[in-house]
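Write out the 3D structure for:
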Amino acid sequence: MQIYKVGGAVRDRLLGKPVTDIDWVVVGATTEEMLAKGFRPVGADFPVFLHPKSGEEYALARTERKSGRGYGGFTFHASTEVTLEEDLIRRDLTINAMAEDDQQNLTDPYHGQRDLEARLLRHVSPAFAEDPLRVLRVARFAARYAGLGFTVAPETLELMRQLSESGELEALTAERSWKEISRALMEDQPQVFIEVLRECGALKVLMPEVDALFGVPQPEAHHPEIDTGVHTLSVLEQAAQHKQSLTVRWACLLHDLGKGLTPEEEWPRHIAHEHKGLKLIKAVNERFKAPKDCQELALLVGEYHTHGHRALELKPSTLLELLQSFDVYRRPQRFEEFIAACEMDARGRKGLEQRSYPQADYLRGAANAARTVAVQPLLEKGFKGPELGEAIKRERLKVLKTYKEKA
């Protein structure tokens, strides 16, 4: 039995980056031997075990062959005869196909170290094209390591393009796709993820609503970058630079989808794009089964982001409607995330990345003012049921009028 550290742990140590998760491959062992040593089996598809003390994953060396469509369409074979090199060749990228023994001796049959130095994301073998999930994975790695100068090798991008055109991407489950998308959005440069997907043709398959934004112009006075797709990437970039949450980043990606529906003769204006985009945002949310908080914020930001930008001009009654829509009294965090998404939208414009956003404090102040209205005095006056609701609304409106006059 020989045990090797493999994949990301080896890659990140060589890059000088902190190693968090460690995966291990065991060569020359049987399932029975692993169980006898106290390892706990996980998963039914292939032999993976948890270490009895550390809880880290140990997998028996295995080979695989394509047996169906999609990410799960593979047959695995594990035996004591499978070599380390045979196990490594089934991996996606050369930089993930290296192994180390306990003395840190490197096994690198597919030149991963050379590609690390050349800053290239290159596939290990033609078998790369058998797994459509790898299109998303490579784009995610591109987003993670873009800051170090990594790019996708041209021949790998070509395989990704072939996969995108093959229909295999449609076989991915919503859950697997969302796992990769959500992880990619939380990388340092999530806009690179979208750029790579677009470059290989995967974006128009997975998110045609986002792909449709590229080449759609906006008024230069408000959007010096002009192109709506470029603007969306810039908003996403700002969200990452400001360490925003996944919910905010998802909303930033989808906030302008309605502009993709504007007839060309109306360009560069996009009248009512906020409402037109809601059905598209809903479709993308449902396609990937995004978590409920991501879905809700994306729809609210899509509908109300221009209200956010015009906050200082809004009538008190419109401001109150906005606060009610977000249920700021019971869900203050959601309104904070809305404000953050609006600010990222304002900053995601060429040359305006450092602009101030006074609307943020104004909106927070309005929410705090509305929250000062106490219910108890109204109950003591005898209001109840729908009448109580109307009385609360009147008091909040009164408070917001005063707030606007003083602002």
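The chain has a mean pLDDT of 94.
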